[in-house]
Specification:
Length: about 350
């Protein structure tokens, strides 16, 4: 990129100039793409024995992100992972991406290119191709919408509505890190002075800004028929357990002592006099997978963990619907599993 390109503006290069720049930045190469960016619609070759997966996410400035404490490239990465994670939860293979955005003229084209670099960096390990999208002007805020397309073997997709009574409940990775990282970013003073030990801040902030999509875990669970139901942890563990229970018409028992918590999250909670369990239950955007599987598949599930090098932890069990959703505390006492994670249209 030459220096002059960093001094242009959306007004001077226009919508189609921006699109041409992005085409050059992310060229397509897959033989399955007959027609990609540049026409009214993309034309794709379908695969036999596969079902199509399609998912869309919308990100709105000051609702889902704040560029005061993350870069455009960070935003792009997280936007890409949010979509990859949806495909991972279904056990699929991500294939194509459409990116649409509405931008105020104050946004430098360089920021748009950096945003795309973040999306591209997140998607590159999975060979995802950019096949289209749309651009528009916005009066004040940035609006970003990504649509991802993927595939899964016919009748192998993991859904939320197939959990069975007696299934073990599993999660990948550790929980609550992203929420703690977000809180660190939101409370850092203007001079960026660290409020926590560097190792704690670095780990938690990275977990928020650069989450890892668990695509390979989902693919193995679906391909080997190990899981009954799955969901990605975007709204928070409490809410997402609730989504599975509602869709499958079952209850759930979660053991607080079984929740996988990083040492960095525990340190953050101690310093801020907060309960790490509550952060893990209610904090969203970890983009880990929650899934249910028969107890007889436990050893095979652990093998998936070994093969993908992603920790997988059993945190509870699916119960009858009448049981409800309960959290077993370290004392053995049970309480209703709260459902107080982020909900749209409920902000004050």
């Amino acid at each position: 990129m030459n220096r002059s390109s960093t001094r242009d503006s959306l007004k001077t290069i226009g919508e189609f100039g921006l699109i041409r720049q992005l085409q050059r930045q992310w060229p397509t190469s897959s033989p399955r793409i007959i027609t990609g960016i540049g026409d009214d619609a993309a034309i794709l070759k379908a695969r036999q024995g596969q079902q199509l997966l399609v998912s869309t996410d919308v990100l709105i400035e000051d609702v889902h992100f704040d560029l005061n404490y993350q870069t455009p490239k960070d935003l792009g990465w997280r936007a890409g992972v949010a979509n990859l994670s949806d495909v991972a939860a279904m056990g699929g293979t991500p294939l194509y991406l459409l990116v649409s955005m509405a931008l105020p003229v104050r946004v430098p084209p360089q920021h748009v290119r950096e945003l795309y670099r973040g999306i591209q960096a997140a998607c590159r390990p999975f060979n995802v191709e950019l096949i289209g999208g749309d651009t528009s002007s916005s009066p004040s805020q940035i609006f970003l919408s990504l649509t991802i397309m993927g595939s899964v073997r016919t009748n192998r997709a993991l859904t939320r509505n197939n959990a069975e009574i007696g299934d073990h409940i599993y999660v990948t990775g550790t929980l609550g890190d992203s929420n703690a990282g977000l809180r660190i970013l939101q409370t850092r003073p203007a001079n960026r002075r660290r409020l926590h030990p560097p190792a704690v801040e670095t780990f938690l902030v990275r977990r928020h800004l650069r989450p890892a999509p668990r695509v390979h875990v989902g693919q193995r669970l679906a391909g080997r028929k190990l899981a009954h139901a799955a969901i990605d942890l975007s709204d928070g563990l409490s809410s997402d357990v609730g989504h599975v229970c509602e869709a499958s018409r079952v209850g759930a028992e979660i053991r607080a002592t079984a929740l996988p918590l990083s040492s960095q999250l525990r340190a953050f909670a101690r310093q801020n006099k907060r309960d790490p369990i509550e952060i893990a239950l209610r904090g969203g955007e970890d983009y880990e997978l929650l899934f249910t599987a028969p107890a007889t598949h436990h050893q095979n599930v652990l093998r998936v963990s070994e093969q993908t090098k992603v920790p997988i932890t059993c945190i509870g069990e699916i119960k009858p619907k009448a049981f409800g959703r309960q959290l077993v505390l370290s004392s053995g006492r049970k309480q209703k599993l709260s459902n107080e994670s982020f909900r749209h249209f409920n902000r004050r």
